[in-house]
Amino acid sequence: MPEMPESQPVRWWPAALILAVMAGLLLFFWLGPMPSVQTRWTATFPTLFFGVLLLAAWLVLFSRLPKRTRLACFAGIAALATAVVLLFEIQGVDGNLMPIVGFRWAGERSFEPARKAAAPTLPGPNDYPQFYGPGRDAVLPGPRLARDWEARPPEEIWRREVGEGWSAFAIVGNAAVTQEQRGDQEVVVRYDLATGDQVWVHADRAPFDTTIAGSGPRATPTVLDGRVYTLGATGILNALDLENGTRLWSRDILTDNGASQPEWGLPSSPLVVDDLVVVQLGRRGLSLAAYDRRSGEPRWRGGTDTGTYTTPIVAEVAGREQILTLNQNSVAGH
User: Fold this and answer.
1) Neighbour order of strands in the sheet with 276-280
2) Rounded Cα gap, residues 214 and 42, in angstroms
3) What is the spatial distance between Cα 239 and Cα 249, in angstroms, rounded to a whole number?
4) Which of 2, 93, 222, 325 could disulfide-link to 270, CB 3.0 to 4.6 Å?
5) pLDDT (tens digit per residue) in 99-133
6) Predicted TM-score of the model (pTM)
């Protein structure tokens, strides 16, 4: 009878080498001179991904394990990878770029319809009508806040579930206005400040999603003289009636100015100065665009440097009132 070939011993050293290199890199990332937790995570994930990929290749192709064992391992890895892809999705990241994982079948959240008739909006001394407050300087003269929150802790008055986004609130009288993303719609919502009830909702079909930077609008509404000015993540500039949410005019600032959308969306909270609404643009060497705040007609555009993820402000510099912008390579006054 012919002699059966002797089975070769399992080749373990490639797996040990891969694991040793992975462990060394991870120790360097987390104990070494990395500047932040974010950079540690951004280095960790590709190390784990390619390390596991190499281990799977070793197991199936180069380990010298019995053929039946290798086929079973391959089938198991393929089944596990398929199940993970079909069942889970990355729904965003936290502040340290750690993925937020959820089930794919979670579905869209539902929101109650706006159904409350609001009382007339009366501006007050403690209004916060735009990004960073009345003067865009993060200063509000009043009211005085209690210093000892242990003796007199704040009490929750109301809580509402909102859509995704990075927009803050603009507060005028009893109106609290913000922007959200609800499914494939980018919405501007007015809430009642006292109760949290929705007073009105204005919607545009303009979904914006990124894994790293999150979903939804980035800018905060600006409220002035009974109007709400908003800029969406994809470039929709709206003027809405504060009382009922009726759209007064709307522009696509990227189309108007031949600009391209920034990678992480448009974040410029509209600046109202005199009879203008001014917003910062995206790429292609364009800084600012100004529109007539009553009609929405384009008035001018200025600047040649590429804009950044900032909002313009008004300041007096060298004796002249100017619109200041922080651009990719410069600070400019217009």
Assistant:
1) 271-273, 276-280, 288-292, 298-302
2) 16
3) 5
4) 222
5) 788 888 766 677 877 877 667 888 888 899 999 99
6) 0.80
